[in-house]
Amino acid sequence: MSLKGAAYIAGAWEHPTRKAPDKSIALLHAECARGALADAGLTKDDVDGYFCAGDAPGGLGPLSMVEYMNLKCRHVDSTDVGGSSYQVAVGHALEAIAAGRCSVALITLAGRPRSEGMATGTAPRPGNPAAPEMQFEFPYGPATANLYGMCASRHMYEYGTTSEQLAWIKVAASHHAQYNEHAMLRDVVTVEDVVKSPMVSTPLHRLDCCVISDGGGALIVTRPEIAKSLKRPLVKVIGVGESPKIQAGGDIDLTFTAARWSGPPAWEMAGIKPSDVKYASIYDSFTITVLMQLEDLGFCKKGEGGKFVSDGNLISGVGKLPFNTDGGGLCSNHPANRGGITKIIEAVRQLRGEAHPKVQVPNCDLAIAHGTGGALGTRHCGSTVILERE
Amino acid sequence: MAYVARKIPFVGTPDTNPETKPFFDGAAAGKLMLRRCTACKKAHYFPRELCPFCFGDCTWEEASGKGKIYTISIMERANPPYAIGYVTLAEGPSVLTNFIDCEFKDLKIGQDVVVKFVKCEGDGPSLPFFAPA
């Protein structure tokens, strides 16, 4: 039985802060929850399902935030797959709603790595030595920037992808960010600016990387009857997919992402193809992340991502596939080092016609919001959500 | 940008996971130990007792220590910079490692490399690194 259309995104709210040293992480989550409920026209008492991931403070999944916000839930889910958790949460909320386990699902993300001075991309993060891979990876200095740099190096080797092509992705994001008053980086940059910015980890330059920001976001996913009783434009969930990709016992291929596997079930459920999509939110921890996911989601052939993203093809009003019209993680924000939820929020804005007028896609009725969590160079999850304006 | 030795961190001890202790014992003796499945005959990495391809039982064997660079990223922001990458071993599996005793800019994907062992900081174990053959 297809669950296409079994749930709607009725509320979406992004925290305007990019630096919040005066707020707790729990408060940021709660402010996002309040914002999304107000956006939907619902109240806290309407929430009966809560979804969060590893950024939620406290050690037992959703429990601390359910306590802090004083929610009365009959369904919770704290699947943590990094920045892709929130697309996964939309899918899981859809399934829970279809199964009658909840009616109004609240999803929150928040964090403040910027205030906490976290070296997000350049310092390897030690974990529990009982994680079976830890002792075979951590000594070699796997930091986020070099884990993605290794993918870019191999993609360049196999397909001839260039730094200039990758730079076009940042250029497009910057064209959009100039209109977002909350974006951290609002200056429009050129290909030359990107390739001449300091090298972080070859072949990725500083401007190939996303920002480090505080902030958060929240979504309300609900039953069709409830969504239709509200006063907001209707945004229907028509396709979802999720899949992890790993090193597979050493049988590695770093030229593709988990989108190769999370995309097809979402496309099939939605009954549409990539060329039908009017707007794409694509996870953008680095420029290479975008390029590989676009290939794997089928927007172009494998290996042709460099050509696809060049010459402004991702710029709204200029190219064929407007992407990340809020400026994305590359220019606007990457709260809690997890960009999944802001991808969905901007897709909802586009489908409602509420994006900034300078980047609003005309007649935007079909959008995709794809997330990646973890690291492309070792293991990660891909998660795909396809949305339709009804 | 030439290789400069850096402190290699390690979390836990070789005894943390009893399943992989022979790997570290081998490294201490200058041997790269690999796991191979007795059922499907495939080698894998990082080492596991149960084969990640078929859940068969595995035995240890000493690898040739030879391989080719699968990919590289030179972490220029670090001090000192280091070169992280994967090496595809002659036995099949690709392993995460660093490249040492070389000029980083001369490293090429597809290049032949050989294993060398470097001791982690403090009481840490020796681990396999790779250098141009």
General description of the model:
The complex is a heterodimer of chains A (390) and B (133). Chain A has helices spanning 25-40, 63-69, 85-98, 144-159, 163-177, 191-195, 224-229, 259-270, 287-296, 305-309, 328-331, 340-352, and strands at residues 8-14, 49-51, 75-77, 104-111, 199-201, 204-205, 215-222, 235-245, 279-282, 366-374, 380-389. Chain A is globular and about 55 Å long. Chain A is built from twelve helices and eleven strands. In chain A, the strands form three sheets. A five-stranded mixed beta sheet of chain A has the order 1-7-4-2-3, sandwiched between helices. In chain A, strands 8-11-10-9 form a four-stranded mixed beta sheet, sandwiched between helices. Chain A starts with 7 loop residues before the first strand and ends with a strand. In chain A, helix 8 crosses helix 9. The model of chain A has no long low-confidence stretch (mean pLDDT 97). Chain A is an alpha/beta fold and 390 residues long. Chain B is mainly beta and 133 residues long. Chain B contains one helix and eight strands. The longest helix of chain B is centred in the N-terminal third of the chain and has 8 residues, at 21-28. The relative contact order of chain B is 0.23. The model of chain B has no long low-confidence stretch (mean pLDDT 97).
- Strand percentage of chain B: 35-45%
Number of helices of chain A: 12
Give the overall shape of chain B. Answer: globular
* Residue-averaged pLDDT of chain B: 97
The coarse silhouette of chain A is globular
The main sheet of chain B comes to: 5 strands, antiparallel
Strand content bin of chain A: 15-25%
Give the strand tally of chain B: 8
End-to-end Cα distance of chain A, whole Å, is 21 Å
**Structural Rg of chain A:** 19 Å
Helix content of chain B: under 10%
Overall average residue pLDDT of chain A: 97
Which stretches of chain B are low in confidence, meaning pLDDT under 50 for 5 or more residues running?
A: none
Tell how many strands the DSSP assignment of chain A holds.
11
- Helix segment tally of chain B: 1
Helix content of chain A: 25-40%
